[in-house]
Structure to design on (194 residues):
């Protein structure tokens, strides 16, 4: 079987979404603002907390790893915690309270207004991200949302400090752009701080 046309089309569609981001000054400025927020947070001794579901959970862990370990070069570790990794905590909160509170409860335990929460959701409707963002807003914890589609509840209720909505209805295309943005933020943080 020859899948070359399908393969080419997947790359073409991915490039189109990234070009839509590249040609949208609002989104570019939001990414710049997010970079500055992360740099300022680290300069003041704050931490970054990240969370998402499914592929977005993997992205949260991936980006935390880039910040704690290294991105382009060896340097001091940066505090970044993926709230998606401790199965005992996740299952305890899910069982004792509700799955919708698995990230909020961890922010209650660890986050201060000096930190930043990065919530990753392709729909803008992930209930556990929504609850975490509501809590963040309540305590003055700044947040960056990697979002998509029409921005969902998060956009409608203006829950994120910075809400970056990828202009695509297709989950894989949104996730691909989220990863480019995440990598870009890691690179800027590393470049400025070190």
């Amino acid at each position: 079987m020859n899948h070359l046309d399908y393969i080419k089309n997947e790359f073409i569609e991915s490039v189109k979404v990234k070009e839509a981001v590249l040609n949208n000054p609002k989104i570019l400025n939001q990414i710049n603002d997010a970079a500055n927020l992360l740099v300022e947070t680290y300069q003041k001794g704050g931490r970054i907390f990240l969370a998402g579901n499914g592929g977005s959970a993997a992205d949260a862990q991936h980006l935390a790893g880039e910040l704690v370990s290294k991105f382009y070069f060896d340097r001091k570790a940066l505090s970044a915690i993926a709230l998606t990794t401790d199965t005992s905590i996740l299952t305890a909160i899910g069982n004792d309270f509700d799955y919708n509170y698995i990230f909020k409860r961890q922010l209650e335990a660890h986050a201060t207004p000096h930190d930043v929460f990065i919530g990753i959701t392709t729909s803008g409707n992930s209930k556990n991200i929504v609850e975490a963002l509501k809590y963040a807003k309540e305590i003055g914890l700044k947040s960056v949302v990697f979002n998509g589609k029409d921005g969902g509840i998060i956009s409608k209720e203006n829950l994120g400090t910075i809400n970056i909505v990828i202009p695509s209805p297709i989950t894989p295309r949104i996730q691909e752009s989220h990863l480019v943005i995440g990598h870009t933020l890691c690179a800027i943080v590393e470049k400025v701080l070190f």
Q: What stands out?
A: DSSP finds eight helices and five strands in the chain. The helical segments are 4-22, 25-43, 55-68, 87-96, 102-110, 127-139, 152-156, 171-193. The first strand starts at residue 48 and ends at 52. The chain has a mean pLDDT of 98.
